[in-house]
Write a structure and sequence with these properties.
This protein is of the alpha+beta class and 326 residues long. It contains five helices and 17 strands.
Length: 326
Amino acid sequence: MDDIFEADKRKPKTSRGAWVIALLSLAIMFLLLGLVLGVYVLSPDNSTKPQALMASPTASADAISWDGAENGSDEPIVLSVYENPVVDIAAAYSKSVVSVKATIMTNNVASSMTSDSESGQETQSEEIAFGSGFIFDSDGYILTNHHVVKDATELSIMMSDGTEYPAETIGSDSFNDIAVLKINAPDLSMIPIGDSDKVQVGEMAIAIGNPLGEDLSGSVTVGYISAVNRRVQSNAYLQTDAAINPGNSGGPLLNINGEVIGINALKSTLAGYDERGIAISSEGIGFAIPINRAIDVAHQLMDTGTVVRPGIGIQFSALSDDEAET
């Protein structure tokens, strides 16, 4: 019996030791798990706190990310943030964009009343019109629109620093709305020419010019390419939502690399009429002549002063009855 009771007394002692060991093991496991979780949560790459987005256009961080749970995704959203290229493009090429000043003589009829009759006397007045252009050749050649220089009796070019030079018309083509001018000036800086055949919808587009005349010279507007090969008035254009206004005509449309991809030429101002017949204006619908076509026309104008186009000639004459019978 003593041996049995002794044995019975040893069983609970052995059982308590096992429980102590088990509890210690569990405590160590929880401690290690807590350390691992703590290191993971405190890691900067796994922070669950959203980071503020910087609106500065000159931010230089490589990327900004935040938790995407609000968008129903466990993956972080990453935005690439880079320096604004428009700042450098405007600084580098605005001096190559010029203001085209055209002097146009207009005829006016002034009427006068006498006691016997009404007579009219024609008078002339001088008007000044402004457009834009850009230097595409270091020898002083400037590209602009035909409608900017049309009917001008005198042309001059005003540089970005205010210096003014007389301009000569090398050639002008009304069908393509392209004109080439030339000035004699030192130290001219030209804009690099791009490839309009490679332009895609959605690319950034930068317009530089003189909207509304010389008071707003050197204005820079930014948008995107809305369409390519848009047919307007029998020609194909690049469509853009970069702001274009009267005075921008002839100025360059550049891509994100600072290359000219088009010449600003047209703007849609009327979307239609409402039920009461009131005109509805349109916004953000501008058109630029693709630079590949413009350069081809410009070189022809520089070489010959004209543009040669294929055509079909037909000659006819009236026949008498006798000639028709034979």
